[in-house]
Design goal:
alpha/beta; 23% strand; elongated; 3-stranded mixed β-sheet
């Protein structure tokens, strides 16, 4: 719910399920899960800087390394001085690039590819935190979270292209190194649920439940109408259609009756999944739905109860 609140835009109909991210980390219990107003990346920093407050972030879509030619060539070095000076030009260019970032007050760099050793050396020298991400989609989401732009050139960003975060830090969660981008700004519409669980099956089930919940919120933003859940609406439709079928002439009544019986599949599945006697539950539901259309299955105790009182609802869509 907190993640959905963070991701909810002013115009609720523009709510996007993509803005609620899930990061699964094996270890711990589901109760250890938390919501972050920002992004959580399962990767540590490439430099020794692991925590930056009031971060100014440059997001690059490419690798941070010196450009190389497309053709192969052979270099013949005759003296020790030639060997020493061979990479000096590359080093000077890289230091100039990193110094530009430092002068622009950039203290966190996100790279969408590999980072050369020389670049990391100068990033370390100028105390810049570096994070390497190989997914182009993650790079795009981080840029959106930070309110900056993705750079395709190896140059210092303009003030409009710089992303900001209240805090960027590395932390170890259940022996997994993660980097957290926190940005507690109203225009940040991305939230991440850090999901914890003892097994992969538990994590997968929890992720599916979250996905169902987020999509339910998406449906609510389109149409806020609800109907009774727990199989109450389906069994009431089945009862009404079968009653209607009795007044139809000819063979049509059998088609309508079978169509009505098809709605039994939802309450029947709920009963079977809860380990209940499906036939007995269906009979009780038909008996109670004649009194009220809100009676459904309470899977916790296996009884037929008023879904409205239990506050069990389904979206109309």
């Amino acid at each position: 719910a907190s993640a959905a609140v963070y991701a909810m835009p002013e115009e609720t109909k523009e709510f996007s399920v993509e803005n609620v991210r899930v990061t699964k980390i094996l270890g711990g219990a589901l109760s250890d899960s938390e919501v972050i107003h920002g992004m959580c990346i399962v990767r540590g920093s490439e430099t020794s800087i692991h925590k930056v407050k009031n971060a100014r972030v440059a997001v690059f879509n490419s690798a941070l390394e010196a450009e190389s030619g497309d053709t192969k060539g052979t270099v013949l070095l005759k003296t020790a001085d030639e060997l020493q000076n061979y990479t000096k030009g590359e080093e000077e260019l890289m230091e100039k690039f990193v110094k530009k970032l430092s002068d622009a007050e950039i203290n966190v760099v996100v790279a969408g590819g590999s980072v050369s050793e020389i670049c990391l050396h100068y990033m370390e020298k100028y105390k810049i935190m570096v994070l390497r991400i190989h997914s182009k989609f993650e790079v795009k989401r981080i840029s959106s979270t930070l309110g900056g732009a993705i750079l395709v050139r190896m140059d210092a960003p303009t003030p409009e292209e710089v992303g900001t975060a209240s805090e960027v830090y590395c932390t170890e969660i259940s022996s997994t190194m993660c980097t957290i981008f926190k940005r507690d700004e109203e225009d940040n519409r991305i939230a991440t649920i850090v999901l914890r669980g003892s097994t992969n099956n538990v994590l997968d089930d929890a992720e599916r439940a979250i996905d169902d919940g987020v999509n339910t919120i998406k449906n609510i933003t389109k149409n806020p109408a609800f109907c009774a859940g727990a199989g109450a609406t389906e069994i009431h439709l089945a009862s009404q259609l079968q009653t209607f079928a009795k007044f139809q002439p000819g063979l049509d009544q059998y088609a309508v009756e079978r169509f009505g019986q098809a709605f039994e599949v939802i309450p029947r599945t709920l009963a079977e999944n809860a380990g209940l006697n499906a036939e007995e539950i269906i009979a009780k539901l038909y008996s109670e739905t004649a009194k009220s259309p809100f009676y459904g299955i309470d899977v916790e105790d296996g009884k037929v109860k008023d879904a409205k009182e239990l506050e069990i609802f389904d979206c109309m869509e």
